[in-house]
Amino acid sequence: MSLLMSKQRIKAFLSFNSKIQRISKVQLHRMTKMFPPIREAKIDKKIETISTEPMFDHNIISSQHSGLFTLLPFGLRAVEKLINIIDAQMKKAGCQKLYLPHLTSTSLWKKSGRYDDCGSEIFRLHDSKNHEYLLSPTHEEAITSLVSSFQPLSHSNLPIYVYQISTKFRDEKRSKHGLLRSREFLMKDLYTFDKNLTAAKDTYKTIVNVYDDLFTNLGIPFKKVKANVGTIGGIKSHEFHVLSDVGEDSILSCTSCGFSANIDVLSDEHLNTCQSCGTALITKKGIEVGHSFLLGTKYSVPLSAQFKDEDGFHPMYMGCYGIGITRLLAAGIEVLSTENQLIWPKNLAPFKVCLIPPKRGSKEECASHWCYHLEYLINEIANYKDEVVVDDRLKLTVGKRYNYAKEFGFPIIIIVGKSAVNRIPMFELFQENNKMVLSQSDLLQYLKTH
Amino acid sequence: MSLLMSKQRIKAFLSFNSKIQRISKVQLHRMTKMFPPIREAKIDKKIETISTEPMFDHNIISSQHSGLFTLLPFGLRAVEKLINIIDAQMKKAGCQKLYLPHLTSTSLWKKSGRYDDCGSEIFRLHDSKNHEYLLSPTHEEAITSLVSSFQPLSHSNLPIYVYQISTKFRDEKRSKHGLLRSREFLMKDLYTFDKNLTAAKDTYKTIVNVYDDLFTNLGIPFKKVKANVGTIGGIKSHEFHVLSDVGEDSILSCTSCGFSANIDVLSDEHLNTCQSCGTALITKKGIEVGHSFLLGTKYSVPLSAQFKDEDGFHPMYMGCYGIGITRLLAAGIEVLSTENQLIWPKNLAPFKVCLIPPKRGSKEECASHWCYHLEYLINEIANYKDEVVVDDRLKLTVGKRYNYAKEFGFPIIIIVGKSAVNRIPMFELFQENNKMVLSQSDLLQYLKTH
Fold it and tell me: Which residues form a coiled coil (chains A, B) (predicted)?
């Protein structure tokens, strides 16, 4: 009888495996095929941050040169998920996406006045015709010049909300903590153009609310604080901070009225008590993950971004709104993780499910086919398509692979283990601190609703 | 009766419009809201290429500085579609995606020997610590160094297929024809690492077949030709060319046996007759859109990308495989388009459907609601989600907007016109050279199957 079951199972396994191969749209993910190969975590961990070393150890990022990082396949999957979420939020807010060149002529920065303000943190270079360019850290000049090139624009063409997601460059002298402070980083930068200050202020409110929603939906605790406009300039500015001891900004907050500001904007007499309600302020360190600027006409006047109405030509009122995508991912991981376990912001784990088949040569090995069977069925659930990785390092015990999956932070871990050889096979599903032992149909039902 | 219908329709319109607004996942696309605003095509067209000027006129690309292009929202939509198609093909072939820094230390290029070979076409710069970097045109050194950093690797870790899609830089002195030859461009670059030459040759065959499929599926006519390995080096190389008079390479082809080569690789005595079968060769110009190299150990030896087996350490055998994404899009448009009409490669048009409601003040205006009704229903069809743009420039006649849509190359144009006021409203659907007059249900049925 048990031999018969085994034959049936082998047949089922083969049939399902070939079925999986035929589903060309789903790439099968196997730990043994992952580049780079999975490694043992290093023992000599630095303790400055909780997550930076584990992100190296777990093949999320890699670095060959100071401040320059490769997003490895695991890391890029997380980043692409974050990009998709941000794209959806931006488009919902009526923003249109474009893609500007990375090289900006310094002639534009001379027009805006930023060329002299920005120091050695900007990478500069000359082309073979000796024209000077910079590797853009932001694109206020480039986008304003672009908008201006479509003159004449009328008031009916406004507002214009345009954004891009691209690599930005900054020659950080103190690049550190992995993606938290790097010299190349992915940024979402939105630029808005309105017909007057009132409209620009309304836009500002709208986008700041979008940011609130975005960070909240990602499950990343953040604080919106008053900030200095700095070299980018403008009328007012807010920063979005993830509070963490590894942050480099000092954030003062009032526990009573909710007032919050970067220490940069407070005068000496306001450093101790809240300027709104007089309560004592508390100080925490913050990692800046987003920044909004009400720019006014700082760029539109020198770069001639105008519109026409019945009264003639007027400069547009601008805003700019950045999110450091790679930094946001890293900051989220840093504040959510524990010393023993990476925890990813909501919906950003590289794979939602890690499936663990039995060890080779173990008593449960005859149940291995259930693993690939489950892989197929879970991929059929819309929200889990392309979200399953099988840890097929069959030389390792299930326990060892479970520990790895836990450390890595896969939100759902499913073990095909001892109970999978039952007449009605049962599977162990782990999510957060819960363990469930479920039949196949219950397991699929659970996933459909989680 | 007609008044009653009209009231019902207005009610239906309002109800559907609010329903559309509630579908937060679908962004509504309106020509009047597009940035940049739609313009009249310029009369003084240059005639060197068929498509470059129309791509500027139709807000697909824009340029502020020589050889540097912005992908405007229409252009970026097409590029993102092409990226998704390439991603799917790469993943189907078992490739893993990562993202390397754009800056590569020139110390790596000195190790590989490419630093001296590559002339002034490489952008170079120094950081504030006077370390020299280049803006990578390709990443052989960077990826080989990355792979090497994960030593020790065993034969069981091979093959490694890793690719990225990112902006590449080349300081072209003769940048021209828009995206066909620009100084920043999007490229897909795949690097493969095998345990020996035989395995590397098998990989080469596999990837070249993937390229064949890709170009074929896009409906872009191409020719695979023998090519020079140039400064990238290696054992053998093929280029993928789109044949066009604006191409800069000379491609010699035999009409009898199918032999095809870039003129660069042929010795003088083989320029006239086929070296395989003796037939006279014909010469055409080609735009290089893809390039494959069997690299051998050119990079793995100097940069120590080794693996270990029972006999000790061995260098890996590499291949590299590029596709110029922005150039492929532009080359496809160039060879498919006519003088009066852009024609996009298959599945790459920025929107599949352009919907045209009646002119404001026209007799048909009372049928306008059907347009937004259709927009909603078409968005419900899986393949058409987010694929509808409404040309709501209601001041313009339907005819004028139809001509615009035709010139732009929307694959499907739907007019809500005279027949939409019938008791059973009928709509005009145009695809390629066919015109159909369809009821709502027939129209939806047609789209579901096309």
Answer: none
CA distance A162 to chain B (A): 8
Residues of chain A falling short of pLDDT 70: 1-26, 41-47
B11 at A interface, C-beta within 8 A? no
Shortest Cα–Cα distance, B434 to chain A (Å): 32
CB contacts of A173 in chain B (<8 Å) are 128-129
What pLDDT sits at residue A229? 87
Looking at domain B62-336, its CATH superfamily turns out to be Bira Bifunctional Protein; Domain 2 (3.30.930.10)
| CA–CA dist B94, B392 (Å, integer) | 44
Give the distance from residue B223's alpha carbon to the nearest chain A alpha carbon, in angstroms: 26
pLDDT tens per residue across span B435-444? 999 999 999 9
B99 touches A: beta carbon within 8 Å: yes
How confident is the model at residue B2, as a pLDDT?
Answer: 43
B220-271 tens-digit pLDDT? 999 999 998 888 889 999 999 999 999 999 999 999 998 999 999 999 989 9
Residue A191's identity, in one-letter code, is Y
The percent of residues in chain B predicted with pLDDT above 90, rounded, is 83
Residue type, A205: K
The residue among B20, B24, B27 with the most chain A CBs within 10 A of its CB, best to mutate, is B27
The superfamily (CATH) of domain A2-39+350-448 is Anticodon-binding domain (3.40.50.800)
Interface of B with A in 122-141 (CB under 8 A): 123-125, 127-129, 135
Question: Cβ–Cβ of A184/B96 closer than 8 Å?
Answer: no
Strands (E), A102-146: 103-105, 124-126, 132-135
- DSSP string spanning B220-279? ---EEEE---TTT--SEEEEEEEE-TT-SEEEEEETTT--EEEGGG--GGGSSB-TTT-P
Two tokens, residue B187:
């490229």
Q: What length is written for chain A?
A: 450
CB A370 within 8 A of CB A6: no
H helix or E strand, kind and range, residue B27: none
Q: Where are the domains of chain A?
A: 2-39+350-448, 62-336
Contact A97 B76 (CB under 8 A): yes
Interface check for B56 against chain A (CB to CB < 8 A): the answer is no
Residues with Cβ within 8 Å of residue A188, at least 6 apart in sequence: A83, A86, A90, A163, A164, A165, A322, A323, A325
Partner residue opposite B101 with nearest CB, options A68, A123, A124: A68
**Beta strand ranges found along A227-382 (DSSP E):** 236-243, 249-254, 260-262, 281-296, 306-309, 312-315, 317-324, 353-356
Q: CB under 8 Å to B282, separation ≥6 — which residues?
A: B252, B253, B255
What number does CATH give the domain B2-46+350-448? 3.40.50.800
Interface test with chain A among B39, B65, B164, by most A beta carbons within 10 Å: B65
CA gap B265, B273 in Å, rounded: 14
